[in-house]
Amino acid sequence: MCGIAGIYNFKSNDNVLSDDIHRMISVIDYRGPDGDGVFTSGNIGLGHKRLTIIDTSERSNQPMTSQYGQQTICYNGEVYNYIEMANSLEVDNISFRTSSDTEVILEMLRKDGPKALQKFNGMFAFAYFNEDKHEFLLARDRIGIKPLYYKETEHGLIFSSEIKSILSLENFTQSSVNRSLIDSFMSLGYCPGDETLFMGIKKVPPGHYLTIEEGRVKLTKYWDITFDKTRDHGEKYYIAKTQSLFEDSVKLQLRSDVPLGVFLSGGIDSSAVVAMMSKLGVKDIKTFSVAWDYGKEFDETKYARQVSEQFKTDHTEYFMTASEFKSFLPQYIRHMDEPVTEAAAISLYYLAIKTKEKVTVVLSGEGADEVFGGYPIYKYMQLLENYKKLPELFHKIVNPVLRSLGTKFKKYADLSETTLEQSYAGVSFYDSNQKQRLYSESFHDEAHKDNVFNKLSPYYSYTEKQDVQSKMQYLDVKTWLVDDLLIKADRMSMAASLELRVPFLDHRFLELAASMPSKYRNKSYESKYILKKAMEPYLDKTILYRKKQGFPTPLAVMFQGELKEYVSDIIDSELAYSRGYFNRIEIKKLLCEHGNGQQDHHKILWQLLVLELWHREFIDTKINIKSHGIDKKKIA
Q1: How far is Cα 143 from Cα 189, in angstroms, rounded to an integer?
Q2: Residues of 313-328 as b/e, b for ≥16 C-beta within 10 angstroms?
């Protein structure tokens, strides 16, 4: 796991200065504290920060140039099946100077070009330059586990693992905000798709690679989820297939030359990872849990301990406090680059710092909900779709009754009068009526013009002929997973110089789910049915079939207590109102209602706080490169 950055002046052909590349990688030191490297050749420059995982010797430092030609790679991530690919290359009389996956990827690209991407199993983002043919390639893994950003300039292209590297060469101002994404952020808590809130800075989409053809940037899709449910192989088949695929995925992701551990929440997903590691013969498994000391609603440690005791792991727990949450907020905003309202990221950071004391690589259960349909909202939306099919007269009688029962029932009554495409924007969406009231009069029309559903329509178009469950899961894989959960996982683990691996996001799981009838993902309203049946031989049913809890952050409590004044000072300020987005009266109302316990507005208050802190960090002042370092304070 590493950090990459670079410049390709394909338009101007100006020489790239090594100082500029050094500046870009210096702001992401934490991604690779074990070494760095810079490669420049005329109009191209590549930079790399290294966290040593496989072949820890200096011979595997990057950027790496092939011994067989003038091909150079700058790579972040892990391609787990590198051993198998190396064996296939040796048949072609290709030998290796290292035992790293980097050199294998380099030689696969030299041999096959972009076609090699189809053979990679892993998480990756890389830049590849073939000086012999003057070919340039930026590529991102199928799911989008590793980030990759770029900006087209008058000279050519700038790219990096993190936006702040690009910002180190650019001076962004208020006018540089991509206002068309404000409604998306306020709807979801993140910005979906290939655009960012920094005007002109984009993401290489998952499953895509970027090339330069005839002096222009070209994006090519090399992978996507393909739905094919023409055959039902039966429940036993899908259970067996899940078991064998999960075993193979974990086995591949155990490849490392440094110590490994597991983030263990006590839920089925992370517990399954521990169980499979044990089945594969891993001894002395190190597990790590985090919780809040705010009661059982915010503490799953008893379940994590149960799993730890079953598999005799070396278990570590960390308990968060409100003061730690507040003190890390500025660094959280810096690390995320874009505003993302994933509050659990902050506790993940503290856990990652603690974890780094014992291991350098950690596995997690991230992605299982998206693959196997684990979110409760999927069941509710399916019921809602069934309700929509009832006669219109029934709706006219029942919906007024539902609206009279309170906010939650009113929400579903309103949603029942829209299509799925108009009502479901992802796991994290909320009541759009409240959002519309929040916008200022001057911004309302602009927000409506660029509303979130316009951004999401391409994903619904792709799944037009699929069932309701598949439509929602595809949308969440392409948006919520990649632009919220995986960004959180990457940024917070890398902030601690820790590599995080996600066995459930082996692309073969997504392909299996796309061919599996939806009835096996939620059977008799039991979410993740097939995964639970597949893990019955390994995990206690009290773990498998307990109610899903997730990992909530006690924002509602903190925003009424320790952080009440702090939140108010930030979002109810002249500086915040000067952005022109929001209605002063509505914000004061939200703060008042939440503060006195009349209504719970913590989610929207958190969004407003993150957005305002983001403006103050990145937009209001010139980027201070030194400010983006990480203060790895000792956690006792």
Answers
A1: 20
A2: bebbbbbbebebbeeb
Torsions phi, psi of 177, nearest 5?
-75, 130
Q: What distances in angstroms separate CA 533 from CA 303, 513, 521, 582, one per listed residue?
A: 19, 15, 11, 48
pLDDT tens for residues 531-551?
Answer: 999 999 999 999 998 877 666
Residue with tokens 């710092």: 353
Mean pLDDT is lowest, of 210-219, 495-504, 541-550, for 541-550
Report which secondary-structure segment, H or E, holds 130: strand 122-130
Please tell me the total number of residues recorded for the chain in this structure: 636
Strand partners, 2: 50
Q: In the Cβ-directed half-sphere of 513, how many Cα atoms lie within 13 Å?
A: 32
| Helix ranges restricted to H, 255-375 | 268-279, 301-311, 322-336, 344-356, 368-372
Decide if 50 contacts 79 (C-beta within 8 A): no
560 token code pair: 């009424």
Residue 511 near residue 142 (C-beta atoms within 8 A) = no
Nearest Cα to 216, choosing from 169, 152, 170, 261? 152
CA distance 270 to 286: 13
454 contact partners, CB below 8 Å, separation of at least 6: none
Q: How is 209-238 classified by DSSP, letter by letter? A: EEEEETTEEEEEE--------S----HHHH
Q: Give the pLDDT confidence of 452-462 residue by residue, as tens digits.
A: 888 899 999 99
